[in-house]
Amino acid sequence: MGTPLPSELGVVQPTPPDLSPADAARITADAFGLTVEATQLGSHQDRNFLLRLGTGDAPTKLLLKVANPGTSAVELECQSAAAERIAERAPDVRVPRSRPGHSGATAMAVEHEGEQLHARVLEFLDGSTLSGSGYLSPGTVRAIGRLAATVDLALADFDLPGIERVHQWDLRRAPEVLDALLPYIGDAALRGRVRAAADAAWAVVERHADELPEQVIHGDLTDDNVVWSDPITKRPDGVIDLGDLNLSWTVGELAITVSSLLHHDGIDLPAALCAVTAYHALRPLSAAEAAVLWPLVVLRGAILVASGHHVVATDPGNAYAAENLGHELAILEAAVSVPMPVASALVAAAIGHAGEDTTGDTGSVRLPAHGPLLEGVTDADVTVLDFSATSPELHEGRWLFGDAEADIAAAALATGTATMTRFGEPRLTRSTPLGGDEPANTALGIELTLAAPTNLLAPWAGVLEETLDGIELRGDGLTLKLDGAERLPVAGAAVSRGQRIGRVASVDGPATLGVRVERDGADAPWFTRASLARAWRAVVGDPTPLVLGRTLPDPRQDPTDLVARRERALADVQEHYYDEPPMIVRGWRDLLIDADGRVYLDSVNNVTSIGHAHPRLVDAVTEQWKLLNTNSRFNYPAVVDFAERLGALLPDGLDQVFLVNSGSEAVDLALRIARAASGRRDVLAVREAYHGWTDLSDAVSTSIADNPNALETRPDWVHTIDAPNSYRGRYRGPDASRYAVDAVAEVERLAEAGTPVGAFIAETFYGNAGGIALPDGYLEAVYAAVRAHGGIAVADEVQVGYGRLGDWFWGFEQQGVVPDVVAVAKAVGNGQPLGAVITTREIAERFRTNGYFFSSAGGSPVSSVVGVTVLDVIRDERLQENARDTGAYFRARLEELAERHPLIGAVHGSGFYLGVELVRDRETLEPATEETAAICERMRELGVIIQPTSDRQCVLKVKPPLNFSRESADVFVSALDRVLTTGW
Predict the structure, then answer these.
(1) Which letter, b or e, does each residue of 110-138 get, where b requires 16 or more Cβ atoms within 10 Å of its Cβ?
(2) Is 819:670 a contact under the CB 8 Å cutoff?
(3) What whole-number distance in Å separates Cα of residue 389 and Cα of residue 422?
(4) Integer Cα distance of 213 and 336 in angstroms
(5) Which among 671, 707, 704 has a CA at the least distance from the CA of 688?
(6) Which residues contact 42 (CB under 8 A, 6 or more apart)?
């Protein structure tokens, strides 16, 4: 009989009418009495036109929908009524209501070239859709899931005559629709893949079909048909195009929504399931709905691909359909990227169900009753290897060596019989530094290394087969894969439990054996991403009991649980980076590593000046801890060595060193010293600056980003002057020199008022604002004015000092001045609590009149050794020079990026103290605060750690360790380019 044509089946709509914008304007005038200008919009099945009514800068916008000839007036009236129902039941959801025509109906009969059509005029929703392949944030994905649930709840009892129709997008009719459409896919291989995927999905759906609730659903609640009105958050708040409204399975709505997310940049299966979690929170899914959700996503993808080819074949001029072919294929490929049981396990985890796979079994794969796999090898003979992110075997960057796993196994075999890797362990050795995306590093099997040739036994009865990689044993619905094994001669393919089936041997040294257990036909990879690993347990079993007789506990903590524990134990005010922070467990050079072995580029850690886990520092600290660590008032060499080294880095005269524990303490002490030296209480501070959290350092901190009430709560002895921001402040560009004039005038005013400045404190490079250099001559003028009235100049070098600026070791050198007191920390200790204050002997002696000073741990033996070693490494590895040269390269690349992305208003800074200021408008300099926060979250997803700064929180603060490389800079720029191109 042949394959029936779509028109014979009635489930596939005919070609939409061929209308021009002039036709649309005429129809609108004739049927609705409106004089409009029409512009055609894209659509698969109907003809859509944007209508502009009226003249001027803000004409009223409407939408004309001329329905496919296969759509009746009754169906269109149902769509109009459904929009009214949603508006009534879900007032926060924007929907396009219909305007009545001359007859009072919303669906007006019109004629075009002898064909009767139906047209409607609808309200046009301002905003934009989520169409395209751009990035969707987790918040946006959750919002579209909530929106789908809200619409379903609003329509739950909606019922009108004509609401149920034969419709190609009704997933209940997937088999007949695909029978009709698949012949239009000309590529036989593609057609076969689509058919196979759809048949496997339908087999699951069919088993549960009688249990699935039905109701009227939108039927096409996708990225193309949701609208956002807030251009900053882009959270969808409106729904358009109810053209596929129909009675169907309720869960089909969610499947359609989820499928539309899968072609977006950065949206993998776990990311898409944020929509499922959000939907389930409002409209809980039943067990049957959870079981069929992903199969329905696959079916939707298959129908999209087949329908796209059908439309292109029957409507060759439909550019909208032709452009979407790639997106539709991407949706299907993403939907089938893992076996359906794995995807369904992800769904189950997202909503808290036990889950069910395509075979009808629940839970993870369990081994049958079994015997041992290795003949003559016991539990006591096996050393379990650790390749996790916290493994002590992987210190000092050993995880980066390609032969690390083999070397560690060989070393363990020197005193043992066998080694074994952990099942389900995310291996740091399989992670990629600077790789960006989540690595496929989590083992779905185990690997054995055997010191001597070893026979293999059948742990259960089955059928033995030889493969290219080794041998396989099939039995009890499972396949035991033994890669690297040689098959032993057996009588026939069937073997019994305990029978010898193979042998592992090597002529060159230890023998290796890979062991995996899978459900028959699963074809799992050796390694997968950590975010998918638990779901793979639906088809993959843990073979560890075949070797040890037991499973091994997972030593990792749950990052979500750790956040919850942190929030219970630590006060809320002690915030952490990111909405969903990774659990960082290791650092190396300019990299940070989480518990799943994901490697991040550390672009913000000015505390770790010489890089994470520097071997030279580790060795020095370890040795000193073995010797002594005690109260800093004892006499020991390290503290003298460090103080001498630190003083030698400063201009002549600045040679008296005080050692403390932090930047806050350093600033606090610096101000106390200045007060003692000047005999005055009043302090002049620069606005938009952060200096610390102690009483004095907080008093002079004026950043409203750190304290929204900073300016209103300053004590009366703190006086502030304008932030000398030459980019967005009162004076810009060449006029920035006027900041110094105003500052000097304020010093004079305070002196005349009887409150002369006792101390002036400022960051020597405007760090907290994003790395902006002070105007030339600024500190020279202000220091001179302050000193003329007996005041003390305090330089806050906590963030910018120690070679970070590249061209200068200290920030004050850029200004050509010498302060009276210098406060420094952060970089001094490379993460060890250590700070310092350096001043002149005369000023130090004046402070002596206030009593004695000590810090029990400041300058302790260990801290002092840290301080000396950090200076040694900066000198010996030429890290200041690296900050200068690589920093200049980095800044040039960022400036190049700014030429292509208008969101970048300016690139500030020097060396490795850079700031990328983001603005919504380069003329008004409106800060892109929300965008900056979202971009930081997106950069973290791409493997780059970055955070916002400035009072407007619109500057990406770029303060990496001083060993940051050109390759690292390229990775940062590439990631930021991707974010600015695809969205955040």
Answers:
(1) bebeeeebbbbbbbbbebebbeebbbbbb
(2) no
(3) 13
(4) 25
(5) 704
(6) 48, 319, 320
Residue 775 C-alpha from the chain's centroid:
37
**In the block, residue with structure tokens 């010489």:** 610
- H or E segment and range at residue 269: helix 269-282
Of 696, 693, 703, 780, which is closest to residue 744 (Cα–Cα)?
780
Tokens 């609808």 sit at which residue? 122
Tens-digit pLDDT profile for residues 691-732: 999 999 999 999 988 888 888 889 999 999 999 999 999 999
Per-residue pLDDT of 791-804, as tens digits, reads 999 999 999 999 99
Where on the phi/psi map is residue 943: left (φ > 0), alpha (ψ -120 to 50), or beta? left
Structure tokens of 390? 């916290």
Model pLDDT for residues 138-188, shown as the tens digit of each residue: 999 999 999 999 999 999 999 988 788 888 999 999 999 999 999 999 999
Strand pairing partners for 446? 515
* Residue 787 structure tokens: 């000193």
Distance CA 319, CA 310 (A): 13
Q: Which residues pair with 794 in a beta bridge?
A: 761, 821
- Sorted by where each starts, the structural domains of the chain and their CATH numbers stand as 9-351 (3.90.1200.10), 379-548 (2.70.70), 615-876 (3.40.640.10)
Q: Which two tokens stand for residue 713?
A: 């709560």
Do residues 959 and 606 make contact, with C-beta atoms less than 8 angstroms apart?
Answer: yes
The β-bridge partners of 839 are: 656, 821
Q: Is the model's pTM score more than 0.85? A: yes
Q: Give the burial class of 623: count Cβ atoms within 10 A of its Cβ; 0-12 exposed, 13-18 middle, 19 or more buried.
A: exposed
Q: CB count, 10 Å around CB of 361?
A: 16
Question: Distance between CA atoms of 372 and 161, rounded to whole angstroms?
Answer: 66
What residue type is 156 in one-letter code? A
Encoded tokens for 622: 């370890």
What is the DSSP secondary structure assignment for residue 733, as one 8-state letter? G
- With a CB cutoff of 8 Å and minimum separation 6, the contacts of 51 are 24, 25, 28, 34, 36, 37, 38, 61, 62, 63, 64, 121, 124
